[in-house]
Amino acid sequence: MRTAAVVGTGLIGTSAALALTGRGLTVHLEDADPDAARTAASLGAGTTEPAEGPVDLAIIAVPPALVGKVLADCQRRGLARCYTDVASVKAGPRSEIAALGCDTVHYIGGHPMAGRERSGPLAARADIFEGRPWVLTPTADTDTETLNAVLELVALCGSVPIVMDAEAHDRAVALVSHAPQLLSSLVAARLEKADETAIRLSGQGVRDVTRIAASNPAMWVDILSANAGAVADVLAEVAVDLGETVTALRALQAEEDAERRGGAAGIEAVMRRGNTGQARIPGKHGAPPTRYETVAVVLGDQPGELGRLFGEVGAAGVNIEDVDIEHSTGQQVGFVQLSVAPGAVRPLTATLRASGWSVRD
């Protein structure tokens, strides 16, 4: 593949364009908003000049409801030899594409499982897809040339291809992406009118849960509208669990010991189910989840402090598997939680303390 077109220069479209231009491809950019395309071009994502002939691959990076219409227009213009899209819902667009009579031999649906809570070309990153799954939903008439072209796209972006049925994909993303987005927003909505004193007590837990609540509402309305039934099914199951949990919490306030014990058992049961579910999430590099231990270090808010800490951990021969930073409210310090192999905790703690770092027990 030497040439590509990206139609829609939002976060995902521009990120794909940046990844491809970084690999030496010529990328032509289109957007209904010319300013967005020019912004993407100014970032090095490609050119807004039209291609002189059909490009090797066109990437349709528009909301799910527009995929069919845009694909039909691109095929009418002969924009590319092969086509794909990156919409986060697959069944609805596939039905519309069939209804519009589009060429499905040279088209395959796609969905890179990557994103950010920010949107638009300025939020784009060439490395956003690296190591992430990229779902492909071929139909019975998708030809080999098209499949190979999109597999090359996935490889150039550093992603891992996963072939799925369109309906199965939509049920899966409802569970692992769309419903969590709404649940994060629901928790964050509780903070809208909360007392300022309560807000100041916010710690890393509420930050983790509400991080994606900063996402663009208009973009998510488009996504959820295309997958509303599957998301509603997930949330209906959550609502049942939530109702039972509320009942269990009320029981903890009861006067009778038996009722309180029943409430405690209900809370423990749902939390154990959560433990089991969380443990199924793939770990580093997609491998089975590994249990790491945490070393918590107090870090001053000065330039270079984090780099100095990482340097000393590296000099100690310890690999950092993951890192979280919790900022202290009202103080110029933070707490860096280094996830390391269990056997590294004791020697790393001793080394850091010997170097003057404050390590929390």
Automatic annotation (TrEMBL):
Domain Prephenate/arogenate dehydrogenase: 2-283
Keyword Metal-binding: no
Keywords, in A-Z order: Amino-acid biosynthesis, Aromatic amino acid biosynthesis, NAD, Oxidoreductase, Tyrosine biosynthesis
Pfam families: PDH_C, PDH_N
Enzyme class, broadest EC rank: oxidoreductase
Gene3D superfamilies recorded: 6-phosphogluconate dehydrogenase C-terminal like domain, NAD(P)-binding Rossmann-like Domain
Reactions accelerated catalytically: prephenate + NAD(+) = 3-(4-hydroxyphenyl)pyruvate + CO2 + NADH
Pathway: Amino-acid biosynthesis; L-tyrosine biosynthesis; (4-hydroxyphenyl)pyruvate from prephenate (NAD(+) route): step 1/1
Listed EC numbers: 1.3.1.12
Domain ACT: 294-361
InterPro entries: 6-PGluconate_DH-like_C_sf, ACT_dom, NAD(P)-bd_dom_sf, PDH_C, PDH_N, Preph/Arog_dehydrog, Prephen_DH
Family: Belongs to the prephenate/arogenate dehydrogenase family.
Record-linked PANTHER family: PREPHENATE DEHYDROGENASE (PTHR21363), PREPHENATE DEHYDROGENASE [NADP(+)] (PTHR21363:SF0)
Protein name as annotated: Prephenate dehydrogenase
Organism of origin: Kitasatospora putterlickiae
Lineage: Bacteria, Bacillati, Actinomycetota, Actinomycetes, Kitasatosporales
